[in-house]
Design goal:
Layout (H helix, E strand, L loop, with lengths): L2 H29 L2 E2 L12 E2 L2 H19 L6 H24 L3 H17 L10 H22 L5 H19 L3 H21 L8 H18 L7 H11 L1 H16 L12 H7 L4 H25 L2
Antiparallel strand pairs: 1-2
Protein backbone atom coordinates (compact mmCIF):
# COMPACT_ATOMS: atom_id res chain seq x y z
CA UNK A 1 0.00 0.00 0.00
CA UNK A 2 1.51 3.34 -1.06
CA UNK A 3 0.86 6.83 0.26
CA UNK A 4 -1.63 7.65 -2.56
CA UNK A 5 -3.76 4.68 -1.56
CA UNK A 6 -3.42 5.68 2.08
CA UNK A 7 -4.80 9.14 1.33
CA UNK A 8 -7.74 7.60 -0.54
CA UNK A 9 -8.54 5.27 2.35
CA UNK A 10 -8.25 8.13 4.83
CA UNK A 11 -10.63 10.37 2.89
CA UNK A 12 -13.12 7.56 2.33
CA UNK A 13 -13.08 6.59 5.99
CA UNK A 14 -13.43 10.23 7.09
CA UNK A 15 -16.41 10.81 4.78
CA UNK A 16 -18.17 7.61 5.83
CA UNK A 17 -17.53 8.31 9.50
CA UNK A 18 -18.80 11.88 9.21
CA UNK A 19 -22.03 10.74 7.57
CA UNK A 20 -22.67 7.86 9.97
CA UNK A 21 -21.95 10.05 12.99
CA UNK A 22 -24.38 12.65 11.63
CA UNK A 23 -27.06 9.97 11.34
CA UNK A 24 -26.31 8.79 14.88
CA UNK A 25 -26.84 12.32 16.19
CA UNK A 26 -30.38 12.41 14.81
CA UNK A 27 -31.07 8.92 16.16
CA UNK A 28 -29.72 9.80 19.62
CA UNK A 29 -32.06 12.77 19.88
CA UNK A 30 -35.03 10.63 18.85
CA UNK A 31 -34.32 7.92 21.45
CA UNK A 32 -33.05 10.40 24.05
CA UNK A 33 -29.56 8.87 24.24
CA UNK A 34 -27.93 12.15 25.19
CA UNK A 35 -25.53 13.58 27.75
CA UNK A 36 -27.41 16.19 29.77
CA UNK A 37 -25.65 19.14 31.44
CA UNK A 38 -25.21 19.19 35.21
CA UNK A 39 -23.73 21.59 37.73
CA UNK A 40 -20.42 19.75 38.09
CA UNK A 41 -18.39 18.36 35.18
CA UNK A 42 -20.88 18.57 32.32
CA UNK A 43 -21.12 22.28 31.63
CA UNK A 44 -22.45 22.22 28.06
CA UNK A 45 -25.49 24.42 27.46
CA UNK A 46 -27.77 21.67 26.12
CA UNK A 47 -28.02 17.85 25.86
CA UNK A 48 -25.43 16.35 23.49
CA UNK A 49 -25.94 13.05 21.58
CA UNK A 50 -23.54 10.33 22.74
CA UNK A 51 -23.98 7.62 20.12
CA UNK A 52 -20.93 8.89 18.24
CA UNK A 53 -18.77 6.02 19.42
CA UNK A 54 -21.19 3.42 18.11
CA UNK A 55 -21.22 5.23 14.76
CA UNK A 56 -17.41 5.31 14.63
CA UNK A 57 -17.20 1.58 15.35
CA UNK A 58 -19.72 0.82 12.61
CA UNK A 59 -17.94 3.07 10.10
CA UNK A 60 -14.55 1.53 10.86
CA UNK A 61 -15.88 -2.02 10.56
CA UNK A 62 -17.56 -1.24 7.24
CA UNK A 63 -14.64 0.60 5.65
CA UNK A 64 -12.13 -2.12 6.57
CA UNK A 65 -14.33 -4.89 5.15
CA UNK A 66 -14.96 -2.99 1.93
CA UNK A 67 -11.28 -2.25 1.39
CA UNK A 68 -10.16 -5.80 2.17
CA UNK A 69 -12.59 -7.25 -0.36
CA UNK A 70 -11.96 -4.55 -2.96
CA UNK A 71 -8.19 -5.01 -2.75
CA UNK A 72 -8.44 -8.81 -2.97
CA UNK A 73 -6.77 -9.18 0.43
CA UNK A 74 -9.28 -11.79 1.58
CA UNK A 75 -6.44 -13.83 3.04
CA UNK A 76 -5.99 -11.02 5.56
CA UNK A 77 -9.59 -11.30 6.79
CA UNK A 78 -8.75 -13.74 9.58
CA UNK A 79 -5.99 -11.46 10.83
CA UNK A 80 -8.25 -8.41 10.63
CA UNK A 81 -10.97 -10.32 12.49
CA UNK A 82 -8.53 -10.90 15.33
CA UNK A 83 -8.42 -7.14 15.80
CA UNK A 84 -11.96 -6.13 14.83
CA UNK A 85 -13.99 -8.64 16.83
CA UNK A 86 -12.58 -7.90 20.29
CA UNK A 87 -12.63 -4.17 19.50
CA UNK A 88 -16.31 -4.35 18.61
CA UNK A 89 -16.97 -6.44 21.71
CA UNK A 90 -15.43 -3.77 23.88
CA UNK A 91 -17.44 -1.09 22.07
CA UNK A 92 -20.59 -2.97 23.09
CA UNK A 93 -19.37 -2.96 26.70
CA UNK A 94 -18.82 0.79 26.39
CA UNK A 95 -22.35 1.24 25.05
CA UNK A 96 -23.84 -0.45 28.11
CA UNK A 97 -21.49 1.58 30.30
CA UNK A 98 -22.86 4.75 28.67
CA UNK A 99 -26.38 3.50 29.22
CA UNK A 100 -26.18 2.05 32.72
CA UNK A 101 -22.88 3.25 34.25
CA UNK A 102 -21.24 -0.12 34.90
CA UNK A 103 -19.24 -0.84 38.02
CA UNK A 104 -15.61 0.29 37.44
CA UNK A 105 -14.23 -3.14 38.31
CA UNK A 106 -16.64 -4.79 35.89
CA UNK A 107 -15.37 -2.45 33.17
CA UNK A 108 -11.79 -3.47 33.93
CA UNK A 109 -12.79 -7.13 33.83
CA UNK A 110 -14.26 -6.76 30.35
CA UNK A 111 -11.27 -4.73 29.15
CA UNK A 112 -8.90 -7.43 30.39
CA UNK A 113 -11.05 -10.18 28.86
CA UNK A 114 -11.14 -8.66 25.39
CA UNK A 115 -7.44 -7.88 25.57
CA UNK A 116 -6.80 -11.54 26.34
CA UNK A 117 -9.01 -12.55 23.41
CA UNK A 118 -6.94 -10.32 21.11
CA UNK A 119 -3.78 -11.99 22.44
CA UNK A 120 -5.19 -15.45 21.78
CA UNK A 121 -6.23 -14.36 18.28
CA UNK A 122 -2.68 -13.42 17.37
CA UNK A 123 -1.75 -9.94 18.57
CA UNK A 124 1.25 -10.83 20.71
CA UNK A 125 4.76 -9.77 21.63
CA UNK A 126 7.76 -11.43 23.22
CA UNK A 127 9.33 -9.21 25.83
CA UNK A 128 10.19 -11.73 28.52
CA UNK A 129 9.83 -14.87 26.39
CA UNK A 130 7.60 -16.23 29.17
CA UNK A 131 4.21 -16.50 27.42
CA UNK A 132 2.08 -16.15 30.55
CA UNK A 133 3.97 -13.06 31.73
CA UNK A 134 3.99 -11.52 28.25
CA UNK A 135 0.23 -12.06 28.01
CA UNK A 136 -0.25 -10.32 31.36
CA UNK A 137 1.88 -7.37 30.23
CA UNK A 138 -0.15 -7.15 27.02
CA UNK A 139 -3.43 -7.08 28.94
CA UNK A 140 -2.11 -4.29 31.18
CA UNK A 141 -0.90 -2.36 28.13
CA UNK A 142 -4.33 -2.51 26.47
CA UNK A 143 -6.12 -1.50 29.66
CA UNK A 144 -3.80 1.48 30.19
CA UNK A 145 -4.31 2.80 26.65
CA UNK A 146 -8.07 2.16 26.61
CA UNK A 147 -8.53 4.03 29.87
CA UNK A 148 -6.01 6.66 28.79
CA UNK A 149 -8.08 7.52 25.72
CA UNK A 150 -11.24 7.43 27.83
CA UNK A 151 -9.70 9.85 30.33
CA UNK A 152 -8.75 12.17 27.46
CA UNK A 153 -12.39 12.37 26.43
CA UNK A 154 -12.85 15.34 28.75
CA UNK A 155 -12.63 18.27 26.33
CA UNK A 156 -14.22 18.73 22.91
CA UNK A 157 -12.01 17.16 20.25
CA UNK A 158 -9.20 16.01 22.54
CA UNK A 159 -9.57 12.20 22.42
CA UNK A 160 -10.45 12.10 18.71
CA UNK A 161 -7.57 14.37 17.67
CA UNK A 162 -5.16 12.28 19.76
CA UNK A 163 -6.25 9.08 18.02
CA UNK A 164 -6.02 10.85 14.66
CA UNK A 165 -2.40 11.93 15.18
CA UNK A 166 -1.26 8.64 16.70
CA UNK A 167 -2.90 6.56 13.98
CA UNK A 168 -1.33 8.66 11.21
CA UNK A 169 2.08 8.17 12.81
CA UNK A 170 1.52 4.42 13.03
CA UNK A 171 0.31 4.28 9.45
CA UNK A 172 3.41 6.06 8.15
CA UNK A 173 5.67 3.58 9.93
CA UNK A 174 3.64 0.63 8.66
CA UNK A 175 3.85 1.87 5.05
CA UNK A 176 7.60 2.43 5.30
CA UNK A 177 8.07 -1.16 6.43
CA UNK A 178 5.45 -2.68 4.09
CA UNK A 179 3.05 -3.84 6.81
CA UNK A 180 0.00 -3.63 4.60
CA UNK A 181 -2.71 -4.79 6.99
CA UNK A 182 -1.42 -2.61 9.81
CA UNK A 183 -1.19 0.43 7.52
CA UNK A 184 -4.76 -0.22 6.33
CA UNK A 185 -6.16 -0.46 9.84
CA UNK A 186 -4.16 2.55 11.05
CA UNK A 187 -5.15 4.91 8.25
CA UNK A 188 -8.78 3.76 8.45
CA UNK A 189 -8.64 4.48 12.19
CA UNK A 190 -7.25 7.94 11.48
CA UNK A 191 -9.99 8.54 8.92
CA UNK A 192 -12.91 7.59 11.17
CA UNK A 193 -11.38 9.69 13.96
CA UNK A 194 -11.20 12.67 11.57
CA UNK A 195 -14.81 12.19 10.48
CA UNK A 196 -15.95 12.11 14.09
CA UNK A 197 -13.75 15.08 14.98
CA UNK A 198 -15.60 17.20 12.42
CA UNK A 199 -18.69 16.95 14.65
CA UNK A 200 -16.85 16.78 17.97
CA UNK A 201 -14.64 19.89 17.67
CA UNK A 202 -15.55 22.74 19.99
CA UNK A 203 -18.39 23.36 20.49
CA UNK A 204 -19.10 19.63 20.25
CA UNK A 205 -22.33 18.50 18.62
CA UNK A 206 -21.76 14.84 19.56
CA UNK A 207 -19.84 12.83 22.15
CA UNK A 208 -18.10 9.51 21.59
CA UNK A 209 -19.06 8.13 24.99
CA UNK A 210 -17.35 5.15 26.56
CA UNK A 211 -18.23 3.03 23.53
CA UNK A 212 -16.10 5.21 21.26
CA UNK A 213 -13.28 5.72 23.75
CA UNK A 214 -13.02 1.98 24.43
CA UNK A 215 -13.15 1.12 20.74
CA UNK A 216 -10.62 3.71 19.58
CA UNK A 217 -8.31 3.15 22.54
CA UNK A 218 -8.36 -0.60 22.03
CA UNK A 219 -7.49 -0.28 18.34
CA UNK A 220 -4.70 2.17 19.11
CA UNK A 221 -3.20 -0.21 21.67
CA UNK A 222 -3.43 -3.17 19.28
CA UNK A 223 -1.94 -1.30 16.32
CA UNK A 224 0.99 -0.09 18.42
CA UNK A 225 1.78 -3.73 19.19
CA UNK A 226 1.22 -4.83 15.59
CA UNK A 227 3.86 -2.35 14.39
CA UNK A 228 6.96 -4.48 13.91
CA UNK A 229 9.40 -2.62 11.68
CA UNK A 230 11.86 -5.10 10.23
CA UNK A 231 15.38 -4.72 11.57
CA UNK A 232 14.33 -2.53 14.51
CA UNK A 233 15.53 -3.68 17.93
CA UNK A 234 13.09 -4.69 20.68
CA UNK A 235 14.02 -1.60 22.69
CA UNK A 236 13.37 0.69 19.70
CA UNK A 237 10.08 -1.11 19.07
CA UNK A 238 8.95 -0.49 22.65
CA UNK A 239 9.96 3.16 22.41
CA UNK A 240 8.04 3.57 19.15
CA UNK A 241 4.88 2.15 20.73
CA UNK A 242 5.20 4.38 23.79
CA UNK A 243 5.82 7.52 21.73
CA UNK A 244 2.74 6.89 19.61
CA UNK A 245 0.56 7.00 22.73
CA UNK A 246 2.57 9.62 24.63
CA UNK A 247 -0.36 11.93 25.42
CA UNK A 248 -2.81 9.36 26.87
CA UNK A 249 0.06 7.87 28.89
CA UNK A 250 1.08 11.28 30.26
CA UNK A 251 -2.47 12.36 31.11
CA UNK A 252 -3.25 9.04 32.82
CA UNK A 253 -0.06 9.19 34.87
CA UNK A 254 -0.74 12.81 35.86
CA UNK A 255 -4.36 12.23 36.87
CA UNK A 256 -3.85 8.94 38.72
CA UNK A 257 -0.78 10.19 40.59
CA UNK A 258 -2.49 13.44 41.59
CA UNK A 259 -5.60 11.65 42.83
CA UNK A 260 -3.65 9.09 44.85
CA UNK A 261 -1.50 11.82 46.46
CA UNK A 262 -4.68 13.72 47.35
CA UNK A 263 -6.32 10.63 48.81
CA UNK A 264 -8.88 10.40 46.00
CA UNK A 265 -9.82 7.10 44.38
CA UNK A 266 -8.35 6.89 40.83
CA UNK A 267 -11.76 5.96 39.39
CA UNK A 268 -13.34 9.18 40.66
CA UNK A 269 -14.46 11.54 37.91
CA UNK A 270 -13.18 15.08 38.10
CA UNK A 271 -11.88 18.15 36.31
CA UNK A 272 -8.23 17.44 37.10
CA UNK A 273 -6.75 16.53 33.71
CA UNK A 274 -3.97 18.27 31.79
CA UNK A 275 -6.58 19.96 29.60
CA UNK A 276 -8.40 21.29 32.65
CA UNK A 277 -5.13 22.58 34.09
CA UNK A 278 -4.49 24.53 30.89
CA UNK A 279 -8.04 25.86 30.80
CA UNK A 280 -7.86 27.00 34.42
CA UNK A 281 -4.74 28.95 33.44
CA UNK A 282 -6.50 30.89 30.71
CA UNK A 283 -6.45 28.61 27.68
CA UNK A 284 -9.64 28.14 25.71
CA UNK A 285 -10.92 24.61 25.11
CA UNK A 286 -9.66 24.57 21.48
CA UNK A 287 -6.42 26.21 22.58
CA UNK A 288 -5.77 23.58 25.24
CA UNK A 289 -6.52 20.77 22.80
CA UNK A 290 -4.19 22.17 20.16
CA UNK A 291 -1.43 22.70 22.71
CA UNK A 292 -1.73 19.12 23.97
CA UNK A 293 -1.70 17.84 20.40
CA UNK A 294 1.79 19.26 20.20
CA UNK A 295 2.74 16.38 22.52
CA UNK A 296 1.01 13.86 20.26
CA UNK A 297 2.63 15.26 17.12
CA UNK A 298 6.06 15.34 18.75
CA UNK A 299 5.64 11.75 19.96
CA UNK A 300 4.41 10.43 16.61
CA UNK A 301 7.17 12.28 14.74
CA UNK A 302 9.82 10.91 17.07
CA UNK A 303 8.43 7.40 16.57
CA UNK A 304 8.73 7.75 12.79
CA UNK A 305 12.29 9.06 13.08
CA UNK A 306 13.33 6.20 15.36
CA UNK A 307 11.82 3.68 12.96
CA UNK A 308 13.75 5.21 10.05
CA UNK A 309 17.14 5.50 11.74
CA UNK A 310 16.86 2.01 13.22
CA UNK A 311 16.47 0.30 9.84
Amino acid sequence: MNFITEIGVFLGAALLSGLVVLASMHLAHRVNFVDAPDSARKNQSHPIPKLGGVAVAFAFFLIVLVILFASSQKDELSLAAGVLLPALGLAVVGFFDDKSNLNPYLRLFFQASFALIAWLLGTQFELTRVPLFDAALFVVWVMVIVNGVNLLDNSDGLAASTVLVSAIGGSIIAVLFNQQLVSLLAIALAGVAAGFLFHNWFPARVYMGDSGAYFLGFLLAILAVRLRPEGVSSLAGILIALLLVALPMMDTFYVVTKRILNGIHPFTAGRDHLSHLLQENGRTVPGSVLLLQGISIAGASAAVVIALVSR
